[in-house]
């Protein structure tokens, strides 16, 4: 089995103007648990995940604060630091003991578009539990998708600098490639990069225990009055189910399950899937038609955090 440089996706940190409303949505309705709160920062955990938290919210003008990935060990964090230093990456800070909730040993730097990326090891894991049958809450953060104005450049940066591999690509006959699915472990994608008008959050996705729990989660969130932008369905790329909703701060959040696992990386051949074929996006034929208007919902607001490190 190929061992890639990063072990997994850890968390996504976002700043939102109305902290209480977004935190209440993600805890009361979406099914995350408040693990810790410190001033204007709320740390939300997924019950099925040993990560100390999977989403961090901070009260400030809306922006992406950072995306965090795990490394297998402290030595791997150091090795990656050496590699990135030689490539002229702009660092927020080199490897050090992390003082925020969850601790660990890590570093922060900017990606090619200016998003803050954290890579850490040795965090204080929390006691996770198996999600019960029919329990409609997330197991873990599944993947994050970013918009960029330069898909080829951004994807290539993650492949070259952080050892991601392209699992599959979505393309439009006229527009060319519009989304690259990137893996850092056997999960088909932990990160995806979408072509958009600007750098921003496309969506964050949470894995449910199975199709039954995913469907119950969808129903529960619909009953909370949350609008479903697109779904429910099953994608071709990644073979995962999808249902996208808009949070109060207008961030797109997804419930998913059964994301493909690439057991043998050496035998995997990335596909370029034509998005104009209905079965590419929606195998079951159950989702509402994907339109330009739906695509625009995920453009989100221009990220104000590029090349500006968050204060925590
Ligand atoms: Fe997704």
CATH topology of the largest domain: 2,3-Dihydroxybiphenyl 1,2-Dioxygenase, domain 1
The small molecules bound here are: fe (ii) ion
- State the secondary-structure class: alpha/beta
Task: Classify the beta-strand content into a percent band.
Answer: 35-45%
Number of helices: 6
Number of distinct beta strands: 17
Give the CA-CA distance, first to last residue: 36 Å
What order do the strands of the largest sheet run in, or round the barrel if closed?
A: 14-15-16-13-9-12-11-10-17
As a percent range, the share of helical residues equals: 10-25%
User: How many domains comprise the coordinates?
Assistant: 2
Low-confidence stretches: none
Structure characteristics:
nine-stranded mixed beta sheet; 2 domains; alpha/beta; 312 residues; 2,3-Dihydroxybiphenyl 1,2-Dioxygenase, domain 1; 6 helices; 17 strands; single chain; eight-stranded mixed beta sheet; binds fe (ii) ion
What features would you describe in this structure?
This protein is α/β, with parallel strands linked by helices and 312 residues long. The chain folds into 2 domains: 6-121, 2,3-Dihydroxybiphenyl 1,2-Dioxygenase, domain 1, CATH 3.10.180.10; 140-297, 2,3-Dihydroxybiphenyl 1,2-Dioxygenase, domain 1 (Roll). Helix content is 19%, strand content 37%. It has helices at residues 19-29, 74-86, 151-162, 211-223, 278-281, 292-297; strands at residues 6-16, 33-38, 41-45, 55-59, 63-71, 91-97, 105-110, 116-121, 140-148, 165-172, 176-183, 191-195, 200-207, 228-234, 241-246, 252-256, 271-274. A 9-stranded mixed sheet has the order 14-15-16-13-9-12-11-10-17. It starts with 5 loop residues before the first strand and ends in a 15-residue tail after the last helix. The structure holds fe (ii) ion. Fe (ii) ion binds at residues 143, 145, 203, 205, 242, 254, 256.
């Amino acid at each position: 089995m190929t061992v890639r440089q990063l072990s997994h996706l850890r968390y996504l940190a976002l700043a939102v103007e109305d902290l209480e409303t977004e935190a209440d949505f993600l805890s009361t309705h979406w099914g995350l648990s408040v693990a810790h709160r410190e001033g204007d920062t709320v740390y939300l955990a997924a019950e099925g995940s040993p990560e100390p938290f999977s989403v961090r919210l901070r009260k400030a003008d809306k922006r992406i604060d950072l995306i965090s990935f795990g490394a297998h060990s402290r030595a791997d964090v150091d090795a990656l630091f050496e590699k990135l230093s030689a490539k002229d990456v702009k660092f927020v800070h080199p490897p050090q003991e992390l003082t925020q909730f969850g601790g660990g040993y890590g570093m922060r730097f900017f990606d090619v578009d200016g998003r803050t990326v954290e890579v850490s090891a040795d965090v204080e894991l929390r006691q996770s539990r198996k999600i019960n049958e029919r329990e409609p809450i997330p197991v873990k953060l599944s993947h994050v998708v970013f918009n960029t104005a330069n898909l080829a450049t951004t994807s290539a940066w993650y492949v070259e600098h952080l050892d991601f591999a392209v699992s599959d690509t979505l393309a439009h006959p006229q527009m060319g490639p519009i989304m690259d699915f990137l893996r850092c472990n056997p999960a088909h994608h932990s990160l995806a990069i979408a072509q958009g008008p600007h750098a921003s959050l496309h969506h964050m996705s949470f894995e449910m225990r199975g199709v039954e729990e995913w469907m119950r989660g969808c129903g529960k969130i619909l009953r909370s009055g949350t609008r479903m932008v697109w779904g429910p369905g099953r994608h071709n790329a990644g073979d995962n189910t999808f249902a996208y909703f808009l949070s109060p701060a207008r961030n797109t959040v997804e419930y998913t399950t059964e994301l493909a696992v690439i057991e043998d990386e050496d035998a995997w051949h990335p596909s370029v899937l034509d998005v104009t074929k209905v079965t590419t996006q929606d195998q079951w034929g159950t989702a509402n038609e994907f339109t330009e208007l739906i695509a625009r919902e995920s453009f989100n607001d221009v990220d104000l955090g590029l090349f500006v490190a968050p204060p925590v």
